[in-house]
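Milestone 3.1: sequence recovery, worked example.
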């Protein structure tokens, strides 16, 4: 009867889950490799899911798969073109197979603060740079900042010579390899989920990452200490596939893109505080954090910054100059 149908429909509506996917909604899966919470990307992903699930109820819903539970960063790019995942935010260091323009972000000492990186990444120039992924079928939706990277090893690092002869885990980035080799150290590319084990078993001696990755992955537990080198920015390219965007009707697509844009702006403003908090937690856990004197810092800059020249042709001297201009 009509009244039974009405009861059934309202019961269905009451059961609708604002935090998950109901039948009939377009499912947006976001796969990433970091901690679910207490991390700039994990927190940004959850905030985005909340906003999409609240504001697009009945039309679309988002599910977050953190911690490499669905895909690692190599696999996620393939899975996206197959339509198995709709959102990902790999580190900008991991786009080399798709474009060499984004090597910009790996240049050591390009940005000395999260604020400078955020300012550049909010610019039209940076947005245009992200379009370099489009010929491969991806669409760059914006940047998520994560923090500045710090070196750690199984011995104290104060001068670049302290790193000589050690083996460091790096992301799949030739700029990172060149930077490590400039230290007369060796680089090993490893997936993020393998880093803790590699440090623990001595497959590598050291690593470089943000405070929140070092904290949430517990790298500090298997290292001598962390040196506050701030030598590189860690940031992500939020991507989807063009095919997924084309599958949405105009109104849904506009709403989705607006929510993504607003959420990323909000998330990026919190990164500096989140990173300070992760650093504090590492200190509270009893790990040694070493500060560099101005002379020591200069020594690291002098050894690593020359790698810019090797990659200038891939990136473009004008692009480098514009980005570096934000580091005031
Ligand atoms: C790494 O592999 O170290 C990072 O890209 C992990 C991440 O996503 O922050």
């Amino acid at each position: 009867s009509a009244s039974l149908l009405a009861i059934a429909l309202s019961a269905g509506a009451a059961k609708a889950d604002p935090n998950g996917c109901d039948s009939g909604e377009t499912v947006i899966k976001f796969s990433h490799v970091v901690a679910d919470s207490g991390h700039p990307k994990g927190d940004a992903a959850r905030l985005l899911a909340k906003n999409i699930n609240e504001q697009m109820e009945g039309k679309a819903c988002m599910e977050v798969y953190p911690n490499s539970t669905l895909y690692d960063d190599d696999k996620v790019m393939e899975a996206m073109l197959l339509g198995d995942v709709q959102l990902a935010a790999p580190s900008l260091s991991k786009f080399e197979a798709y474009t060499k323009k984004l090597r910009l972000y790996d240049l050591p000492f390009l940005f000395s603060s999260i604020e400078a990186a955020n300012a550049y990444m909010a610019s039209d120039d940076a947005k245009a740079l992200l379009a370099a992924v489009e010929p491969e079928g991806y669409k760059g939706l914006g940047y998520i900042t994560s923090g500045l990277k710090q070196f750690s090893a199984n011995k104290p690092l104060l001068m670049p010579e302290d790193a000589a002869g050690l083996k460091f885990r790096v992301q799949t980035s030739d700029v990172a390899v060149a930077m490590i080799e400039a230290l007369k150290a060796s680089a090993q590319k490893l997936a993020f989920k393998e880093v803790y084990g590699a440090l623990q078993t001595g497959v590598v001696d050291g690593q470089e990452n943000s405070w929140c990755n070092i904290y949430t992955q517990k790298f500090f537990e298997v290292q001598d200490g962390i040196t506050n080198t701030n030598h590189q920015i860690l940031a992500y390219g939020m991507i989807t596939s063009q095919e997924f965007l084309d599958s949405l009707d105009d109104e849904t697509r506009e709403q989705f893109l607006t929510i993504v844009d607003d959420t990323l702006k909000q998330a990026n403003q919190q990164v500096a505080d989140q990173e300070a908090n992760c650093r504090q937690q590492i200190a509270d856990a009893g790990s040694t954090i070493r500060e560099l004197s101005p002379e020591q810092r200069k020594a690291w800059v002098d050894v690593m910054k020359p790698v810019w020249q090797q990659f200038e042709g891939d990136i473009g001297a004008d692009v480098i100059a514009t980005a570096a201009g934000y580091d005031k």
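The longest helix spans residues 250-268. The CA atoms of residues 126 and 311 lie 18 Å apart.
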